[in-house]
Amino acid sequence: MADLDPLIQRFLDHLAARRSANTVRAYGSDLAQLSSYLNGVFDLAPDRLRLYLRKHAPTPVTRARKLSTLRAFVRFLKAIQELDHDPTEALEAPIRRKRLPKALSQQQAAELLDQEADNARTPARDRAILELMYAAGLRVSEAVGLDLADVDLKERTLKVRGKGNKERIALFGKTAAFALEEYMATERVSPLSGSAIFTNPKGGRLTTRSVQNIVKRWAVRVGLPPETTPHTLRHSFATHLLDNGADLKSVQQLLGHESLATTQIYTHVSVERLRKAVDSAHPKA
């Protein structure tokens, strides 16, 4: 039988021109493990692959990833005519339960953002960035990446650079606008370079890690779980909009999701909230 390793290397070389180094590394690690299991022999019979997955992919998440690697490898082998069939067709993908994003209740969001934080080093800055992330549904990377030219306080709009450097317009309300104006007038340190809105006391652009720590500190002070994160605010933004009657397409645009299916998970969150309300309040629940 043919050797498997040269074919794996051809696949990885092909992949390197199209995918990130991290992806190539991950595929290479999975396929090296496969080769070791098969003793370097090019034998991709479904039964052999099934036993390999059973041994080396004990959890649904691991199995799904390794199966994805196998299928990509097999597609390449068919393209270069080393295989004339797909042995992975007989392999079943694991059923993965989608974890619902955690969102604060509207009351919890109010407690988080309305607290007195005078003992913080930079209360106006911290409040401004939290208000803005919740008001506009921003990712933490989008918030720290904002420059002066991206913000229109009069129209209350933001020019946001999201995933893949794609731009969108985000909206924010009067409360966030007031918090931002207060921060700009009282605490903002002029940046050493560029025109970042959110800066640290030395004039450097605020980092995502700093914002994560800010959210955690503010959450703990009002008794919210310490695992509350900047992304929790984004989840809460989407969930609360849907709870209050916003249509899914509008929420999709505000979040900057390419696919409506990505946004639809928030409808499940809203339904789950309604179910809990019924279970706790209905006499015959």
Automatic annotation (TrEMBL):
<keyword id="KW-0131">Cell cycle</keyword>
<feature type="domain" description="Tyr recombinase">
    <location>
        <begin position="99"/>
        <end position="279"/>
    </location>
</feature>
<protein>
    <recommendedName>
        <fullName>Tyrosine recombinase XerC</fullName>
    </recommendedName>
</protein>
<keyword id="KW-0238">DNA-binding</keyword>
<dbReference type="InterPro" id="IPR013762">
    <property type="entry name" value="Integrase-like_cat_sf"/>
</dbReference>
<feature type="active site">
    <location>
        <position position="257"/>
    </location>
</feature>
<dbReference type="InterPro" id="IPR050090">
    <property type="entry name" value="Tyrosine_recombinase_XerCD"/>
</dbReference>
<keyword id="KW-0132">Cell division</keyword>
<keyword id="KW-0159">Chromosome partition</keyword>
<dbReference type="GO" id="GO:0005737">
    <property type="term" value="C:cytoplasm"/>
</dbReference>
<dbReference type="GO" id="GO:0003677">
    <property type="term" value="F:DNA binding"/>
</dbReference>
<dbReference type="GO" id="GO:0051301">
    <property type="term" value="P:cell division"/>
</dbReference>
<feature type="active site">
    <location>
        <position position="139"/>
    </location>
</feature>
<comment type="similarity">
    <text>Belongs to the 'phage' integrase family. XerC subfamily.</text>
</comment>
<dbReference type="InterPro" id="IPR011010">
    <property type="entry name" value="DNA_brk_join_enz"/>
</dbReference>
<dbReference type="Pfam" id="PF02899">
    <property type="entry name" value="Phage_int_SAM_1"/>
</dbReference>
<feature type="active site">
    <location>
        <position position="163"/>
    </location>
</feature>
<dbReference type="InterPro" id="IPR002104">
    <property type="entry name" value="Integrase_catalytic"/>
</dbReference>
<dbReference type="Pfam" id="PF00589">
    <property type="entry name" value="Phage_integrase"/>
</dbReference>
<dbReference type="InterPro" id="IPR023009">
    <property type="entry name" value="Tyrosine_recombinase_XerC/XerD"/>
</dbReference>
<dbReference type="GO" id="GO:0006313">
    <property type="term" value="P:DNA transposition"/>
</dbReference>
<dbReference type="InterPro" id="IPR004107">
    <property type="entry name" value="Integrase_SAM-like_N"/>
</dbReference>
<comment type="function">
    <text>Site-specific tyrosine recombinase, which acts by catalyzing the cutting and rejoining of the recombining DNA molecules. The XerC-XerD complex is essential to convert dimers of the bacterial chromosome into monomers to permit their segregation at cell division. It also contributes to the segregational stability of plasmids.</text>
</comment>
<keyword id="KW-0233">DNA recombination</keyword>
<feature type="active site" description="O-(3'-phospho-DNA)-tyrosine intermediate">
    <location>
        <position position="266"/>
    </location>
</feature>
<keyword id="KW-0229">DNA integration</keyword>
<dbReference type="GO" id="GO:0007059">
    <property type="term" value="P:chromosome segregation"/>
</dbReference>
<feature type="active site">
    <location>
        <position position="231"/>
    </location>
</feature>
<feature type="domain" description="Core-binding (CB)">
    <location>
        <begin position="2"/>
        <end position="78"/>
    </location>
</feature>
<comment type="subunit">
    <text>Forms a cyclic heterotetrameric complex composed of two molecules of XerC and two molecules of XerD.</text>
</comment>
<dbReference type="GO" id="GO:0009037">
    <property type="term" value="F:tyrosine-based site-specific recombinase activity"/>
</dbReference>
<dbReference type="InterPro" id="IPR010998">
    <property type="entry name" value="Integrase_recombinase_N"/>
</dbReference>
<dbReference type="InterPro" id="IPR044068">
    <property type="entry name" value="CB"/>
</dbReference>
<keyword id="KW-0963">Cytoplasm</keyword>
<feature type="active site">
    <location>
        <position position="234"/>
    </location>
</feature>
